[in-house]
Amino acid sequence: MEPQKKHCFYLLLTLMIVPIYASTALGLGGKRGGGVLVGGWQPIKNITEPHVKEIGEYAVKEYNKESKSQLTFVSVVKGETQVVAGINYRLIVATKDGALAKNYQAVVWEKVWEHFRNLTSFTPVKA
Question: Could you tell me which Pfam families the record lists for this protein (predicted)?
Answer without folding.
Answer: SQAPI (PF16845)
